[in-house]
Amino acid sequence: MSRMRICPVTGPVHRRAWRLGATMAAALALVACQSGPSLHAAGTGAAAVSAAPVLRQDLFQGIYEVAVAPAAGTVFVATAPSFDAASPGYVHRLDARTLQPLQTVQLPRRAFALGLNTVTNTLYVGNTLDGSLTVVDAASGLVKGQIQLGVAEKKADGKDSMPHTRKVIVDEKHNRVFVTSPGQPGVVWIVDGAKGQLTHTIRSEGIWTAGAAYDAAANRLYVSQGGVHEILAIDPDAGQVVRRFSTGDSKGNTAQDSKHFFINLALDAKGQRLFSVDSNTNQLYVFDIASGKPLATVPLGTGALDVAYNPQRNEIYATNRGVSREKPEGTGALTVIDGAGYAVKRSIDLPVHPNSLALTPDGNTLYVSVKAPRGEKHPAYRKDARESLVRIDLR
Q: Is residue 58 part of a domain?
């Protein structure tokens, strides 16, 4: 395994880019760190900015998920600069190659998750703390409305508690949207995209239902969570759980009894495998769908978070933020895993906290959102620091 360190060029905080490749010596003169092997050779001059194998845009406050619009040659980024309930959210549209900002759309509610229907050209934005979806016209940026999913409930202390939305997955063929809610118990909502209405609410016997992946050919929705059964298979037509996968490690469906929390999920539709990141043990779990049994585990770094599968290259990508309650001063990385034998091919440093992943349909480009430290004790903490979107060419 090789470990690659990628560092930003010093310069204006709002936009920084760097190249690795044939001009390594020149690149090292611009950065105050050591870099490992290149991803592939880069050119020089102005044209090299858009053709660079690795590009970083430092523009955002409160960056979260990314969605790719390949036909338009753009990417969307969700940001929530503040956790204040009255604060707006934002969706930024960027050029897919240069990461140049093209448009910023202000939303009435904070923006976290993204799901894009490329057939209807509709962007669904998860308003996590408000338990809702904001519906945006992906062509114009016009906010079309909101779909409220969660209903506030009274807690034991008398205060209202709103169920959160988390992952937003789009079924383009049937114009549906699947949304997870990591409560106790967990919940999955299914929304009719044409009508903008909730059609099914599925309550899990497990907890923290968070990750999701949809197999369009089989018409099966898979969600990941904590508890005895870490992965559920759902028939979205019926709105029912039809299968349950388990490691067999957890004793019950409470926080105390649950050994794992499968926070995010990715699908290998052709190979019928599921890849899930366990944030409790910082490992990647590989499940065989036919048997429902784990095939392998791969150790990741501290704060393991997101996962994506690239069928064209048979590679798995996983982020880890590098921090935990016990280790608040670390830095994270992107791990590239061979999809055949599950060996770690390389680890790419993306300081400070790599977060969410998005892959282009052709498997040639990977986007990673990178967050800044929040704690003042972190050595990289800077007040009002900007957060980043990184583009990595995989060819």
A: no
Q: Per the domain annotation, does 39 fall within a domain?
A: no
Tokens linked to 157: 């202390």
Q: In this predicted model, what pLDDT tens digit does every residue of 95-132 receive, in sequence order?
A: 999 999 999 999 999 999 999 999 999 999 999 999 99
Question: Containing domain of residue 292, as a range?
Answer: 107-393
- Residue 31 located in a structural domain: no
pLDDT digits (tens, 9 = 90+) for 1-27: 544 444 433 233 333 333 223 222 222
Q: Is 158 helix (H, G, I), strand (E, B) or coil?
A: coil
Give the distance between the most distant pair of CA atoms in the chain: 62
304: left (phi over 0), alpha (psi -120 to 50) or beta: beta
Count of domains observed in the chain: 1
**CA dist 363 to 313, 392, 395, Å?**
7, 11, 9
**Cβ burial 311-350 (10 Å sphere, 16+ → b, else e):** eebebbbbbbbbbeeeeeebbbbbbbbebeeeebebbbbb
